[in-house]
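Dear support,

We are seeing what looks like truncated structure output for some complexes. This example has two components. We would appreciate it if you could run it in full and send us the complete token output so we can diff it against ours.
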Amino acid sequence: MSYRLNPKFKKELEKLGASSQWNDCFHCGNCTAICPLTEGQVLFPRNGIRALQMGLKDKLVASSDPWMCYYCGECSETCPRDANPGELMMALRRYLTTVYDWTGLAKKFYTSKSWEFGFILFWAALVVALFWFFLPLRPDAAQMVNESGGVMINSLVAGINPDQFVMIIHYGDWIMAGIVASLLITNILNMFYKTILSDKKIKVPFYTYFTEFWQIIFNFVTQSKFSKCDDRSYWVGHLLLMTGYTIMFNLIVVALPRFQTEAVVEWYNWQRLLGYYATFGVLFFLTIVVIGRFKKSNTKLRFSHFSDWIFIVMLGLTTVTGILVHIFRITGLVEATYYMYVVHLAVLVPMIMVEVPFSKWSHLAYRPFAIYFSRLKKAAVAKQDSVVLAPAI
Amino acid sequence: MSKIPFTGVYFQHYTNGHTDSINLKQIEEYAKNIPGVALIGNSNDFPPVDKKSFVLKIKNDRVKRIVLAGYSPGMSQPFFAGVLSELGLNPSDLIICSFKEYGAIQSDETDFAKALLFCAIMGVPIETTITSNKPLVNEDTLIIGGGIAGIQASLEIANSNHKVCLLERTATIGGHMAMFDKTFPTLDCAACILTPKMVDVGLHPNIDLLTYSELKEVSGEPGNYKVKILKKARRVDMKTCIGCGICSEKCPSKAPSEFDAGTTLRKSIYIPFPQAVPNKYLIDADSCIYVKNGKCGVCAKVCPANSVRLDEQDETIEINVGNIVLATGFQTFDAGKVEQFGYGKFPNVVSSLEFERLVNAAGPTGGAITQRSQDKKGNWIFTAETAEPESIAIIHCVGSRDVNQHKYCSKVCCMYSLKLAHLVTDKLPEAEVYEYYIDIRAYGKGYEEFYERIKDEGIHLIRGRTAMVEQKNGKLHLRTEDMINSRLIEQDVDMVILAVGLEPRQDASDISKILGIKTDEDGWFDEVNYISNPTNTFSGGITLAGVCQGPKDIPDTVAQASAAASQVIQNIINGKVKVLDKSKSLEEIEAAAIQLSTIMEEQS
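Here is the complete output from our reference environment:
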């Protein structure tokens, strides 16, 4: 496969947070060799720097390697040229996100603060407006307290009964999840086209699509590759965040009618325990990351793109408002519960709508699929090699 | 004055990362008031986007001459030369005013930088305004450092019939070269070249050898220095010691041998190596039992010449000299600082200097290349009895070309690594040798041919910097990206040689303070001009020789030592020392420059 040189390509990446440090690279290969995740066919980050220096845009677009990197920072720390390969991989991931996203919004969000803030404010305003016009606080809300003193959260809205309210929010969640899922799925198909189909030489054996499929689920759940990075405690923290959020997401999207009930269940009830675990997991890792990004002593957290901060702030606000809703409910503060509930949704909805399909959070899908695709490629190459090599011997 | 052509001054706003650098803005302000300056510009973003209007502006301002000023502004020279010829002017009217070249780097040298600029605008060479001649009061020369550079410079000066005092910190002259097994590219035995020179120094009537002594203080001025030297107590009388070695045989205490780079042990009363000059014993006070607690003194009892002076004390002597040659050399990089390579952790990861001793016939194993093994006490030592390594990896650029250590290239490691590879294949024809390099730098006469020759000897040259060395199942495991074939190489070897770079001596900055000369950002001594005046310093009477000025190999070191000697001899013959006096005030230099430019005009 031949590639076209694109000298202006580097400008595109610089907009996505790649500092020009990579230009200092003199190709000693230290980064590739010190990386605990490189093996056989998957060689990075030096290959990426080379492709960037040469302006091989097509090659980078077709590469799923940046997703294999979990940014332990070892390469940047030992780089003899201070070329910062780790941060370049981060910028390449941002770039690939914009490449897979067919709507073009990802690129806008990564390069323009006004686009990103505008989009967030749009969804926040939409949520607030929906509550304002269709689900206002009922006048006699103050009585909506159950025997144990907790707020009956589903009965706060005027004109509809509690079951209807839960179902409205429930369907809203499903619509949101549907939008996000369809965007992600189409982006992954795009990724599949760019990394596998566009290279005509690669003929993936059909059965491997099935035999390797477990890779997606396995890597989504365990992030086992991440655990190979030198700083394992970081992987544990990330796993806490990931499992915490996944649990919370399932509670509110799949099981909302059972989760958001009129009665405040006892503290040892499974839903509350799961909720507490999720909250702890998310907050714990977020705190570590925020401290790290401020202190800048950890290589992987030294450079912060504005999109990194937006993600952290949105996720943090969602968690904090969620906790506040919970506290207000238990303590029987009716009005505060209602308004905090609105605020919670006004943060949560934009966060999901911006981050999952278009921004940093899309890695939840791209990483496992990148591993899957690279396994497919590997299988294809292995098979083709045997075909080519056999007569040569 | 009126005839000075209109000058355009272009500034390069770059100071090479010095924190306390000269004030370029102040200099720019100053330039505006110099007569004849018609245009001040910025040379940072060159070539400009709109060249046409740029040239037009120069033409409209009737500029006839261009001065490029800045830390090191030579980069934009081709562009401006092109502009001048485009305007039909003489490209030789482009004057480079490099502040770095004349050592105007720190903020307190801003005035000197102004003077440099003034002279450049006037078209007067700065040297002519600041040079002054000091009378040479003393014809003797002090040479600091007894390595190959110091030896060569001493012999050159002494052979021209002038007195030399050669100062050496250790107990023998010879320096690093005496430790090497072979030299590249000719594969001559280093000792065979060096020892005759060492003996010459020892026997030369004009050379006064001061070994085991250190420089303490220097006062006076070029042509007439007073030097205080600390003579460390040798505790053996040099005049009567006959070098029989009985004392050493009987001595009960041991310490690592400096000469063998720590690979062997020597006694506390010892001679550094058999060919040492002077060939006299000495006592190492740090390990001597008598010095520590007053018990022992066996050496004094057995000495047949009665030469041992156990209670001798250090003394300070003072000498007067007219010139000083600085040849303090280097130290090798401490490979332990790069943790990835496991030096100091894995016994068979050795530095190149250690390997140099191992492979030497006078080394710890008598020249047999073997792996390190543990002795009865558990110390890791080299002995001739242990197994030979079946595979050896040489890792290049350890401590060099690395922003985390030294960003410069140490210049000699590629070649000595190739040499070591050859020595391995020579002694162990069955062994596999892998060289992991970033680039092979085989500059110089016969070097490329040497490289080609070693390649043909079946050595595996792999382009890629090894990222880490680990010990697995008794083997050393290396992880490297093979750049050329784009694959990851995981290689098991028995021994790893780290090609450590050269770095300035730890106390180089002390020396620079004592002598009042500058060091560059890497710590090497600064010369007047690396290209056209590489041996002189701004101190006039002090010249540089060898690696203390910057990494170089033996041929370059010898050449520079001879050049430094010629500078000294020139001073002696002329009876005066030429000094570039940077302490002259700006006004004085301005006046001198104006005076000179008027004379030049009248003559033309």
